[in-house]
Every structure is written in C-alpha cells, then in structure tokens.
Amino acid sequence: MYSELIIKRDEFYVSNHKGFKCTDCHSEEYGTFPHSGNLRMESKANCLDCHGGDEKYAKFQFEKIDSNFMASVHSQKHSTDFTCWMCHNPHTYKINARTNENLKETITYDNLICLSCHSDITKYELLTNKEKPNILVKHEWLPNQASHFTNVRCIECHAQNKDTLIVAHQIVPKNLAVKKCESCHAKNSILYASLFKYQIQENIKTKGWFKGLFLSETSTIGPDQNNTLNIISLALFALTLLVILIHAVIRIQKSH
After folding, report:
1. Which of 12, 188, 220, 256 has the fewest CB atoms within 10 Å, counting from its CB?
2. 190: helix, coil or strand?
3. What is the pLDDT of residue 247?
4. So where are the chain's domains?
C-alpha cells in the first residue's frame, strides 16, 4: 500500500475528527479491508457538507470562511484542484488558534501548514508547472528574517483579515502582501486583528477590559513588547496623580 494513503492512528486520535468512524465520512464499503480500488474515485466531502447550515457550528462561521477562501488566490488560480483538505488534512487537523494558549506553538503549527506546500516540491508541482520559489530568497527584504518567521504567521502578511474571523482565509496576491514595518510595529498594529485577536478576546473575558488590553502579552508589538515597562509606566502615572492629589489637599488645608 502507498505510504501516503495510510492513516496514522496516533495522529488521527488527537485530531478534531477523532470521534468519527471511517464510514461517517466515507461509504460503507470502507468497512471492508483491504478497500476496493474503485473507492479511489469516490467523491470527498468538504467542510460545508458537515458544518454548513448547522446552528451548532454557526459560531465558527464556516460559510464566511468558505466565501473568503473562494476569493483567495489559492482558489482563484487553482479552481477545484485546491480544496480545504490541501491545508487541513481531515485525518490529522487540529484546531489551534482558539485552543492553544501557547502563541509560539500556534504560530509554528499554522506556518507548517503553509510550508507543507511552499517548501515541498512534490506537493507544489501538483498544482502548478511554475518553478517553486525559494522562500528565504523571496523574503530577503525582511529585516531579522528568522525572528519574523518564528514570531508571526505567514497569513499575517499574506491574507486579508476579517474582523469577525479568528483566522484569515483570503490569501491575497503577492503584490498586495504587507511589506511596511509600521503595519505591525505601531499602536494600531494589524496583529491586533489577526495573530493576537483571540488572546485579546479571551483576556478581556477573564481579566476585564483594563488587564485584557493593557497588561496582557499582546498589549505592545515588536521590540517594545515588555509588560514590565507597561506596569512601571502605569505605576509612575498613578504615583504622579497621588502626589498631585496630596499636594492639592495640603494647599487647601493651609488656605483655611
């Protein structure tokens, strides 16, 4: 049997679909092993076949994800050849962005999805005859390249972010990719609407608006990211107000 057709049990039983039987998604003929060769021609279900139009999954906005994906360069350029399963293997995929508290692990997991094609010549050639570009060379313009690759996801710069979606699915043409430092390294950083969105939402729910926005690890971006300095600055500000208040009280008392 081709090794790429073998479903790895350990990976499946930690995936999102671990609770399903094979025949929940495949025909009953898959109950017979070895499988018949003609099953290779069986049509595959897509995300909306199970998750679309169901109130149970409405909060995940699968319909909106699908429409954004259909507008992405992956779908526009490769039509029906590029499906959800090109990035999200149904036998191994795990939700990460809204379940993992370790941001670095989420970044690594999501970036490996992109690199599974963009650094694999075999998968890349399944979709195009073009020469596979060298990722490192294409990003030579990016200062401190290694740090960026480990601290932000590819989609931060290569996808159009939607306010209502946790993870952007509309990959934009390369000429529209973000290349300005200030897009991320600023008070109105685009990372608030993408990479840090879920963490900020959860911090606000558990810690309140003040701590969630100003004292979380997502409160500042880039080289200025230091919560200790945030706390010291707020403490100094509070102390200054206290000194002014005490000074005002003393003057009022003396004036009487």
Report:
1. 256
2. helix
3. 86
4. 3-204
